[in-house]
Amino acid sequence: MRFLLVEDNQELAASIVTRMGLDGHVVDHAAALDAAETCLRCTEYDLILLDVMLPDGDGRDFLSRHRSDRTTPVIVLTARSQVSDRVGMLDLGADDYITKPFDFSELEARIRAVLRRRGGAADNRITLGDVTVDLLAGTLRVATRDVTLRNRELRLLEVFIRNPGQILSKAQLLDRLFSFDAEITENAIEVYVARLRRRLDGGSPRIETVRGMGYRMTVQ
């Protein structure tokens, strides 16, 4: 999954980027609202983590503008503990909030909960055909066998399994798996797709190559 982090505290931002990266997520960091707007014009995000007090404005104004034309989930990172402040942010369209300072395990749990609600899921498992992936445990069950996935394999599978039948280009997959500053070519996608195909061997879902266009996951 690809997240946008809007946070001017460099130390906190670096910690979040590192922690999310360990789970295989891509996090683009913007230290100000202007930079965040630029990021949003360049790509799509699965989630936005938004600070409130930023050098060039109020995160609540950004949230209000964002909600007028986008549906990307937003979790607000706030030092404000007053109930009225939190209620106000939820009324503006925030999907959740977390009060600073926070434990990273709580942030991760809130991210999973928001993404589950967005996908209409009751838990962290997604099933397609005879394949079930547990996004929290990082495990894959293919028919009757269990497979442990590496983080990037897990995130690639998540992209495919959430978009069955949809053709995804190498550029789109590259965008979901790597940050702007990563020096990675589209050949890397071929490598990860090949690995994931081996993991799925024996199951009904297949990753098909659509010549000249990309890949799509279908169920045989």
Keywords:
220 residues, alpha/beta, Arc Repressor Mutant, subunit A, 5-stranded parallel β-sheet, Rossmann fold
Question: What is the strand and helix layout of this fold?
Answer:
Layout: E1 2-6, H1 10-22, E2 26-30, H2 33-42, E3 47-51, E4 53-54, E5 57-58, H3 59-69, E6 74-78, H4 83-92, E7 96-99, H5 104-119, E8 125-128, E9 131-134, E10 139-142, E11 145-148, H6 151-162, H7 170-177, H8 187-199, E12 205-210, E13 214-219
Helix pairs in contact: 6-8
Structural notes for this entry:
By secondary structure, the protein is α/β, with parallel strands linked by helices. It has two domains: 2-119, Response regulator (Rossmann fold, 3-Layer(aba) Sandwich), CATH 3.40.50; 125-219, Arc Repressor Mutant, subunit A. Helix content is 42%, strand content 25%. The protein has helices at 10-22, 33-42, 59-69, 83-92, 104-119, 151-162, 170-177, 187-199; strands spanning 2-6, 26-30, 47-51, 53-54, 57-58, 74-78, 96-99, 125-128, 131-134, 139-142, 145-148, 205-210, 214-219. Strands 2-1-3-6-7 form a five-stranded parallel sheet, sandwiched between helices. A four-stranded antiparallel sheet has the order 8-9-10-11, covered by helices on one side. The chain has a two-stranded antiparallel sheet with strand order 4-5. Strand 8 and strand 9 (131-134) form a beta hairpin. Helix 6 crosses helix 8. It is globular and about 55 Å long. The mean pLDDT is 91.
